[in-house]
Amino acid sequence: MSARALHLDPRSPLVLDTRELGRRPGSMRHARRTIPAPGDWALELVRVPEGADVELDLKLESVMEGVLVTGTADAPLAAECGRCLEPTGGRLTVDVQELFGYERAPDDPEAPVLDGDLLDLTDLLRDAVVLALPLNPVCDDECAGLCPGCGGKLADLGPDHIHDTLDPRWAALGAIAPSAPSPPDPLMQES
Question: Is residue 15 classed as helix, strand or coil in its secondary structure?
Answer without folding.
Answer: strand
